[in-house]
Amino acid sequence: MTATAPPALATLPLADDALVLSHRLGEWAGHAPVLEEEMALANIALDLLGQARALYAGLRDELGTEDEIAYLREERTFLNCQLVEQPNGDFAHTIVRQLFFSTYQQPLYAQLAPKLPLAEKAVSETAYHRDHAEQWTVRLGDGTEESHARMQRAANALWRFTGELFQPVEGLDLRWQELEGEWAASITEVFGRAGLDLPEGQRSGAWTAGAGRQGLHTEPFGPMIAEMQHLHRSHPGATW
Amino acid sequence: MSADWPLWEVFVRSRRGLSHTHAGSLHAPDAQMALRNARDLYTRRSEGVSLWVVPSREITASSPDEKDPFFEPAADKAYRHPTFYEVPDGVKNL
């Protein structure tokens, strides 16, 4: 631990990413195409939830308990990127979202590993998430005409949410350009193996997404956190 | 959908030095995905250090109907078991 740890609040966007994506993946429970895949998605969701909890625990002095942070904040105070709040859609949408995000998250955690107690375990967890998404991307992209079309449609739809990932987060001293370069190279390689075309639209700039880190979210996010928070808000202090 | 996927038998080695033990079975589209599904289904609680997956159709099993001819003869030949022989007193380290 030679490097200086980042200020606690700087990790809030990363924690919110993990919580929100965990919740989205949890929505697959009972709905996944096969039992084996349901377990895989639930495992990934639980890994992400663990990462979120570890980071929230470090914010106790600033924001309160883990439950308060997750369940009692308003939409505008969540700093997750807009990519992770996008609805599950079909299985292709979920896999492409997962590919775009874990290809970003794993090298990011790797850069943070010397500075955060969370990150080392999280690097190997996210390496598995990334592998899972890549395996499916190649199989579905290079699968049937139907699966290929669905993957391409999902990639085109989610592309405009990927530029936001590389907006520097205040307080996190990371090599953002290097992260973006690695990400683009990896996605290009996986898409090549999957026989998918890289979407042509811009990833950042006008007409793309990108204010999640400032607390602005897309329309599906409100209903999602309403569902996520309603139990805690209806029965404050309820325990299992 | 899983009806189209072949069945795989999963073997888990719980730690170094032990042999792989049959843990169960699962459906997967191919061997690589079977390994990953096996990881999620059978090694979530640090049960293993190594995994094998084998297509179930590749396993040839003995038939329950042939149980007697297959396994019965061993029982009546007591000299096949080590307990048949008396160990001489002078033998050490046995």
UniProtKB/TrEMBL annotation, chain A:
Its EC number is 1.14.13.149. It comes from the Bacteria. It is an enzyme of class 1 (oxidoreductase). Keywords: Oxidoreductase. Signal peptide: none annotated. It holds the Pfam family PaaA_PaaC. One of its GO terms (molecular function) is phenylacetyl-CoA 1,2-epoxidase activity. SUPFAM superfamilies: Ferritin-like. This is Phenylacetate-CoA oxygenase subunit PaaC. It comes from Streptomyces iconiensis. The lineage of its organism: Bacteria, Bacillati, Actinomycetota, Actinomycetes, Kitasatosporales. The gene is paaC.
Automatic annotation (TrEMBL), chain B:
InterPro entries: PaaB (IPR009359), PaaB_sf (IPR038693). It comes from the Bacteria. Gene3D superfamilies: Phenylacetic acid degradation B. This is 1,2-phenylacetyl-CoA epoxidase subunit B.
